[in-house]
C-alpha cells in the first residue's frame, strides 16, 4: 500500500475558492471566530494523525481483524493507542455541541476530516463515526440529565456510542422490530431483545459503550409509529460519573464479513438491560432519522475516502510500472518499456477515478455547506432553502458517492492487474471495505426510493428547485472557453427536468414506477450534480492558473468528465423512460 | 449459501432449440456418434458431481484456503477426494484427443460443464481447467514422444498442468521475461528463473505436475519473438511412466488474495530444472496463445458461473425474505410484510442478473458452436468463417462475460443487504472469486485492445462481417410480435457499424485512439451480441410456449433486456465518439 497523503491543497481550493465557505462563517454568529487559516490548521492536524498513525496500520489491522471470545471483542493492535490519540485531538466531538466540550465545527470542515480518516482506515473511522452520530441524537433529543451524564464523556472520546436498529427479521423494515421496553418503577425501562449488525456494539477501545436502541413500549401502536428510542449503557454510571455495575447487554457473536475486518459488527443481546427513554414515546424513528440523515453524508464520504486512497496507489503504480509501449511520441526509448500511464485505457481508468474523487470531494463539500447554512444561519429563508437542498441531496450523497467510490476502487484494483488482486498492495481491501457503504445505513436502493419517492415525488418536484436554481445561476453566467461544457450541463439539466415530469405524471397511475426507476434516477441526479460542481471548479480554477499552475489540471479533468462520464445520463434516461413495464411482466415463478 | 442446482433445462434449450448444435454434430465425421440425449446425459453426470460434492464444499474451502509450508501446498479438505471423482468421470479430458484417452467432446458441451463447475466452485475448477489448457497446448505443439509420456496421465487427471508465463516485472508485456533455457547434451534444457501468479503451480491433489514454461534460449532475439515454450515436470518420469527423481522446480510462496482462496497461486522457482522444448525455438508465444485463445472463453465462463450461482441464491432470498410493502395489488395481507420480489428495484436487480446469466449462457454456447465448427467441420469455407467469428468473439467472451458476471454478483450481494456482506451466505465470496476473471489470462483492457486493435482494426473491419451477417439473417426474418425488438437490434447494429467506421478512420491519424476507446467498444459489441442471442432465444421460445409454458419467461426477459439494458450502448457510443482527446490533455504530473 502506498503511503497516504491527505489532499490538503485540493480541500482548501474547494472550501475557499469554489464554495467560499469562510464567507458563510463570517456571517454566522456561532462561527464568527473561525477563519480559513484556522480551518487549514485543523485539517492539517487531522491529516498528520491519519498519515502517520492510522493509515500505516490499516493493512495489518485488516489481516488481524477483530477477535471475539466469551463476550469480549479485541480490536487489532494499534487501535487502542490510535483511538486515544484521536480522542485527545478532539476529533470524536469535532462537530459536537461546545456546551459539552465539542469543537462545534461546521460540517464543511468535518467532511474533509472524515474523508481523510476514511481514506486512512474505514474500519477505524467507524468507532468514532458511530459515536458522533449517537452524540448528535442524544444532544437533540435527550433530557438534560442524560446529556449531562453522557455527552461530556462521549464527546471526549472516553466512551463510545452504538446505534442498535436492525433485528434478524427487520432491516429496511424497522416497523417489524420485536425488542421490548418495559417501564420500571424508577423511571427507567427494562430492554429485552436481540439486535444484529451493530457496528462497535462491543470492543476494547474505551471503558464504556452507550447504546442507542430502538424498542417497543407495551402500549406501542403497530408498525413504524410504535418505536421508541432508549439509551442503554454497557456499564451503569455511578454518581461520580465513573462506570459502575455491568448492565445486562452482551455481545453474543461478531459477523465474519467481506471487509471492514477491523470493525466489530456485533449481535447484541439485551436481557432486561436498564435503559432510559430518549425523546417522546413512539417517536424513536424520527429521532433516529435526524441523526441518520446527518450521518448519511458521512457514509457517502466513506466511498469517497476509499476511492481517494485507491487513486493515490493506482497513480503511483501507473507512473512507476513499466509495461508495453505507448504511441511513438510518448516512448521512453532508454527503457525496456513505457510507464503504464502512457496507455489510453490506463488514463481512462485513472481519470475516471480522479473525476469521481475530486468531483465527490466538491459535491460533499457543497452538501456540507448547505448543512452548515441550515444549522448556523440566522436568516430563516436562507436556512429553509439550505434545508431543502440537504433533504434532496442527502440520499444522493450517500448512494452516489458510494456507488462511484466502489467503481473507482474497482478501477484502482484493475490498474494494478494481478497485483491489485493480492492483498499486499491494499487495493483489494479498499474494494472490500468500500462495498459495505453501498449497503448499510439504508441500502442505496432505499436512498433512491427516498430521493424519488419521498423527496422529489413527495414535493411534486418542488424540492428540485433550489438545485436547478444553483445550476441555472452557473450556466447563465458567461465563462469564456466553457461554452460547450455549460451548454452540456444545461442540456443535462433539461433532461433531468423532462424525466422528472414524466415520472411524476406516470406515478399518478402506476404505483410501481417510483421503485422501478429510482436507482437510475438517483444516478441521473448524481451525474448532473457532479457536472455542476466540476464546472464550478473549472471556472474557478481557470482564473487562478497563473498564480497556481497546478489548477490547469482541474480544467482538463472537468472537460474529461463532461465528455466522457456525463454522457452516461443518456442510458439512464432511456432506462427510466421504460418505466415499470419491463419489470412487471414476470410472474413470481417465472424468474 | 443456497443449494446449487445446475440449469439442465435451459442448457438443453440453448443447445438444441436455439443453436441446433446436434445438427452440426450429425454432419461432422468425428462427432457423428454424438446426439442430444447422450449430451444431456453427460451434462447430467457433471451436474450431479457439482451439485452433490463440489458446490456444498465451496464455502468451507474458501474459509480453509490453501496452506503453504516448506515448499508444500495443502488444498482444503475434500479437494483431493473430489478431484479424484472428477478425474474418474473423465472431466479433465472432456474435450481432449481420444487418441490419448480424451472424451473428444465439442466445446458447446464442455462450455455447459464448465459453467456448472465454476458455479459450484471457481477455485476447484482451476486445477482441472489449467490442466485442460496444458493438454491442448501439448497435443497441438508437442513432439510425439512428449505426448506419449504426458498426455495419457494428464487426460486421466492423474497429473495436472500449469502455465508459467508471468514474471514479477513482466505481466502483460511478456517480451521482457528473463527466465533462461540452456541446452543440455541430451537434448533437454536447463530452465532457470522465477515465475509468479502460477495457478496450481504446486498442490497435493495428484502425484505430478507438468509445468509449461515460457523462457528464452541463449540465442533468442529480443522481445516477444524470442520466447520459447518448455515442458518441465515436477518429477522426472521413469521409463515405466511413474514419477521419479524430483526436478529442480519449487514453490517459493503462495499469494494471499482477495478471493479464490482455495486455488494455489504460486511463486515458482526454476533452478536449473530439466525441461523439453515444445514446438519450434522462439515460437513459444504463438503456441501458448493457441491455448490461451481457446481458454479465454473458459475464463469468461467463470464470470458466468459465478453470476448463475449468485442469481439462484438471490432469487431464493427475494422470494422468502419478507420486508416492506409492495403496490396494493401485490400485497400479502395475511403476512407482516411482502416478499422482496414485489419491489421494483429488487426485480430490476434480479432481471439484470437473469438477463446477463441466460444471455451469457447463450452467447458462450454461440461461441462454443463456432469453435466446434472451426475444429470439426470438413468444409473449408465453413471452418474459415467460424474461425473468423471465434477470433472476433473470443476477447468479447472473456471480458464481457466477466464484466457482466461481476456486475451480476455485486447485484446478487446487494439483494441480500447486510446478509450479502457477511460471509455465511456466500454471495460476497462469489464477488471476490469472480473479480479475478476480469484480471487474469489477459486483463479485460487487453482483451479490448485485442478486439479493437488486432481483430477489428487489423482486418480493417472485415472480421465483423460474419457477425453482422448472422444478425442480419435474424432481423430480416419476420417474427410476429418482435417487430420493435428486431428494429432495436437493427439500430444497435447500425450504431456499431457507424462507430467502427469512425474509429478506423481516426486511427489512421491518431495512434492513441484504439487504446482510448477499446473498453467501451468491447462493451458495445458485447451488448449487441447479447441482444442478438436474446432475440434468437425469444423467437425460438415463442413457438414452443404451448408445449413448454416456462419458456414464456424467455420472451419476457428478452423484452426486459432490449428495453432496459441494451440502451447502455448510447452512453458507450458517446464515450467512443469522444476519441482520445479528453484522455491526453493531462501531463503526467497533472494527474
TrEMBL record, chains A, B:
Presence of the UniProt keyword Ligase in the record: no
GO MF annotations, alphabetized: flavin adenine dinucleotide binding; oxidoreductase activity, acting on the CH-CH group of donors
Entry keyword annotation includes NADP: no
Pfam families xrefs: Acyl-CoA_dh_1 (PF00441), Acyl-CoA_dh_C (PF12806), Acyl-CoA_dh_M (PF02770), Acyl-CoA_dh_N (PF02771)
Domain of life assignment: Bacteria
Domain Acyl-CoA oxidase/dehydrogenase middle stretches: 162-271
EC code: 1.3.99.41
InterPro entries in alphabetical order: Acyl-CoA_dh-like_C_dom, Acyl-CoA_Oxase/DH_mid-dom, Acyl-CoA_Oxase/DH_mid-dom_sf, AcylCo_DH-like_C, AcylCo_DH/oxidase_C, AcylCoA_DH/ox_N, AcylCoA_DH/ox_N_sf, AcylCoA_DH/oxidase_NM_dom_sf
Domain Acyl-CoA dehydrogenase/oxidase N-terminal span(s) in chain numbering: 40-158
Protein family: Belongs to the acyl-CoA dehydrogenase family.
Protein's UniProt name: 3-methylmercaptopropionyl-CoA dehydrogenase
Native source organism of the sequence: Pseudidiomarina salinarum
Amino acid at each position: 500500500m502506498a503511503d497516504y497523503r491527505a489532499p490538503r491543497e485540493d480541500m482548501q481550493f474547494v472550501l475557499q475558492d469554489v464554495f467560499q465557505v469562510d464567507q458563510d462563517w463570517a456571517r454566522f454568529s456561532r462561527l464568527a471566530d473561525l477563519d480559513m487559516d484556522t480551518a487549514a490548521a485543523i485539517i492539517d492536524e487531522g491529516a498528520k494523525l491519519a498519515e502517520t498513525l492510522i493509515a500505516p496500520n490499516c493493512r495489518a489491522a485488516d489481516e488481524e481483524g477483530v477477535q471475539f471470545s466469551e463476550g469480549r471483542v479485541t480490536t487489532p493492535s494499534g487501535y487502542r493507542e490510535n483511538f486515544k490519540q484521536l480522542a485527545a485531538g478532539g476529533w470524536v466531538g469535532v462537530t459536537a455541541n461546545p456546551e459539552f466540550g465539542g469543537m462545534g465545527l461546521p460540517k464543511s470542515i468535518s467532511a474533509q476530516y472524515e474523508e481523510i480518516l476514511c481514506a486512512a482506515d474505514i474500519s477505524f473511522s467507524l468507532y468514532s463515526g458511530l459515536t458522533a452520530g449517537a452524540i448528535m441524537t442524544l444532544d437533540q433529543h435527550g433530557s438534560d440529565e442524560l446529556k449531562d451524564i453522557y455527552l461530556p464523556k462521549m464527546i471526549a472520546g472516553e466512551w463510545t456510542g452504538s446505534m442498535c436498529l436492525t433485528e434478524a427479521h427487520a432491516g429496511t423494515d424497522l416497523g417489524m422490530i420485536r425488542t421490548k421496553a418495559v417501564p420500571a418503577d424508577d423511571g427507567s425501562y427494562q430492554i429485552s431483545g436481540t439486535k444484529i449488525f451493530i457496528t462497535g456494539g462491543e470492543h476494547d477501545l474505551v471503558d464504556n459503550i452507550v447504546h442507542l436502541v430502538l424498542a417497543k413500549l407495551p402500549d406501542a401502536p403497530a408498525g413504524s409509529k410504535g418505536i421508541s428510542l432508549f439509551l442503554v449503557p454497557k456499564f451503569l454510571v455511578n454518581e461520580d460519573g465513573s462506570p459502575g455495575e455491568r448492565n445486562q447487554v452482551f455481545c453474543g457473536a461478531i459477523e465474519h464479513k467481506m471487509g471492514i475486518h477491523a470493525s466489530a459488527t456485533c449481535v447484541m443481546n439485551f436481557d432486561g438491560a436498564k435503559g432510559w427513554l430518549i425523546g417522546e414515546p413512539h417517536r424513536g424513528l424520527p429521532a433516529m432519522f435526524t441523526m441518520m440523515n446527518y450521518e448519511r453524508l458521512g457514509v457517502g464520504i466513506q466511498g469517497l475516502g476509499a476511492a481517494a486512497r485507491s487513486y493515490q496507489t493506482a497513480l503511483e503504480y501507473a507512473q512507476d510500472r513499466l509495461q508495453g509501449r505507448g504511441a511513438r511520441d510518448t516512448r521512453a526509448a532508454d527503457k525496456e518499456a513505457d510507464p503504464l500511464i502512457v496507455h489510453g485505457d490506463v488514463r481512462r481508468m485513472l481519470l475516471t477515478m480522479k473525476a469521481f474523487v475530486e468531483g465527490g470531494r466538491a459535491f460533499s463539500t457543497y452538501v456540507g455547506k448547505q448543512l452548515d447554512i441550515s444549522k448556523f444561519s440566522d436568516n430563516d429563508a436562507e436556512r429553509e432553502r439550505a434545508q431543502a437542498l440537504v433533504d434532496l441531496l442527502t440520499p444522493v450523497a450517500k448512494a452516489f458517492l458510494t456507488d462511484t467510490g466502489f467503481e473507482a476502487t474497482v478501477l484502482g484494483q484493475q490498474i494494478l492487474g494481478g497485483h491489485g488482486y493480492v492483498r499486499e498492495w491494499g487495493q483489494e481491501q479498499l474494494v472490500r471495505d468500500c462495498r459495505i457503504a453501498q449497503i448499510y445505513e439504508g441500502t442505496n436502493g432505499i436512498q433512491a426510493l427516498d430521493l424519488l419517492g419521498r423527496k422529489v415525488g413527495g414535493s411534486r418536484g418542488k424540492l428540485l428547485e433550489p438545485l436547478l436554481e444553483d445550476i441555472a445561476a452557473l450556466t447563465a453566467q458567461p465563462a469564456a472557453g466553457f461554452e460547450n461544457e455549460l451548454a452540456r450541463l444545461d442540456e443535462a439539466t433539461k433532461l433531468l427536468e423532462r424525466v422528472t415530469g414524466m415520472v411524476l405524471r406516470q406515478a399518478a397511475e402506476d404505483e410501481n414506477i417510483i421503485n422501478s426507476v429510482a436507482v437510475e434516477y438517483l444516478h441521473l441526479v448524481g451525474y448532473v450534480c457532479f457536472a455542476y460542481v466540476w464546472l464550478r471548479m473549472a471556472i474557478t480554477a481557470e482564473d487562478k492558473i497563473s498564480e497556481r499552475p497546478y489548477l490547469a489540471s482541474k480544467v482538463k479533468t472537468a472537460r474529461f468528465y463532461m465528455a466522457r462520464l456525463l454522457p452516461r445520463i443518456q442510458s439512464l434516461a432511456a432506462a427510466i423512460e421504460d418505466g415499470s413495464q419491463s419489470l412487471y411482466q414476470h410472474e413470481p415463478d417465472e424468474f
